[in-house]
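Re: that chain you flagged

S.,

Sorry for the slow reply, it's been a week of failed gels. I finally had a moment to sit down with the sequence you sent. For the record, here it is as I used it:
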Amino acid sequence: MVDDVTAALAGITAALPAGGEHRPGQEAMARAVGQAIARGRHLVVQAGTGTGKSLGYLVPAALSGRTVVVATATKALQDQLAEQDLPRIVAGLGPGAGLTFAVLKGRSNYLCRQRAAEVGEAGAVHEQLELVPSGDRVPGGDRVPSGDRAGAATAGEEPPGIGAQVRRLLAWAETTETGDRAELSFEPAARAWAAVSISARDCPGAYRCPSGDSCFAERARARAADSDIVVVNTHLYGAHLASGGAVLPDHDVVVFDEAHEIEAVMTDSLGSEVSSGRIRALATQARTLLPGAAGAEVDDVLEAASLVDDALAPWVGRRVAPEVLATGSDAPLGLAVERALRRLERLVASLRRVDGGGDGDRNDGGDARARRDRAVLAGGHLIDDLAHLAGLSDDEVAWVEDAPRSATLRVSPIEVGPILAEHLWPDHTGVLTSATVPPGLAGRLGLPAPDTDEIDVGSPFDYRHHALLYVAAHLPDRRTPDAEAAIADTMAALIDAAGGRTLALFTSWRAMHAAADAVRQRVPHRLLVQGDLPKSALTDAFRAETETCLFATMGFWQGVDVPGPSLSLVTIDRIPFPRPDDPVLQARRERAGGAAFRQVDLPRAATLLAQGVGRLVRSATDRGVVAVLDSRLATARYRAELLGGLPPMRRTVELDEVLAFLRGLG
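Prediction finished late last night. Pasting the structure tokens below so you have them in one place:
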């Protein structure tokens, strides 16, 4: 197989638009992936920028004869695989290979025909919007904007703009072939989309749905089940594991691209959350389904939601100890959760007794039965999540997050490694790859050491001659009053020498706006600031206007690709250590004890710093400077660990040398 992989890769890369080129790192990666799949061994590959890692794993996957799921961390990479890389492989292998592939997204990314039919009924738009909990998570992972709060309009009215968006979505439902939200020509508000979509948590399944035969999500799942390679995002793979393997088709191999994101995504996906908004939404839905005699049960649940709200308020921003939530607890929060659980159990039992019509066949009860089934399913999941709170283990952490309208109680595993070791790696061959693989990642993800190989195939770019790393060792401690002014002085000098062409990365919104305000009046170049435009529009404008500067926060530290003359300087305001108040990381620090900084904080900072630095050189001809405006990278005892994860650029602490280098770029 290894020889076949090498030959196929050479043919496919030779047919690339630019004529292709031989990349030794890409070939080494492809051969290693082919061997790993053939032998059933797990593989972790660090493949530096420019390696061409997507073809490095897709070609051996295509030739393996196995069913492969590729999980990506970003939509941009998912689109690249489905629209560029996989079609090239299909063309390169020829029709005789019979290779098939599909993209599968979470159910909430597809329009639900049943909900669209229900909301399309006369006067139903406002009713459906009332069922969406404000401030809570809604299908797609969004949160409902506070300005879209259900019930904000008077009786019989629709919140401004939302109803019009829903009607526009209903018109689109009549013409779309896929129902995929990504095909929309506009970006609907979270509540508008939620009115015509459904999460996997609330869907009763195709058989029990009157619209099951024409369901867009089920069609997508059927295509995926018949494909050799299925492209998903990492969050969906996490949902697959959380469901016990009920989301994705059976597969032999899983490839995680952008593997440095796995730990954070799985921590989120394998947890749960409860809010008063979620409880109220179920009660509102139940009121439309239950006879008048059961109205008292709905009122009881609404009262319980208010009690949960009141009990959560003192805990916002704090961790919640398991004993606070344990059965028999006399703490106000534990009592409120227990009361909500018992009242919801009674309400769902009443819903189960409702005759939605028919004898159980999905076509007999119509819309009424579909709504009942959705409510019962949503109620069952909510009851399970509340019951779980009463018995949290020592391996879980609970905390309360603030939200625009109601606080949310969240639970996550402290470590995901043991879960993956039990439920993923024994039955699937794993291939994990990233331009930056955090130290110790394989162990934290539970990969079995005897069955796991790790390689680094490097990068084809000439970092030593094309890039310079500048650490501003002269800058004062960030905690001193004159630090911001000194940073602004240095940034202005660097931007002026670079002729604009700067991506300025910050670890906080406050620091970004302060720097933008200070620098804007001192340089003759246009400054774009995150928040002025959507992310894609900002990136497009930055790429198109070669002397423009872009000031941005954490969302731009990775996944931003601007090769060519528009980017000659990347500035990083400080070493990106994680927040000290993150509940999951707090719990991990407690477990690590005296080794917490080196086991928890330092690896994450090193990974994110490398991701930020990686924005500079995106092609073989790119040249420029990365300026880290944090003197600790030159003086701290841990600087070697941070510098060791960066590309092999020349380094300097001399500002004059950097300014001359930038001016020489032309």
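What I noticed first: The first strand starts at residue 42 and ends at 47.

Talk soon,
D.
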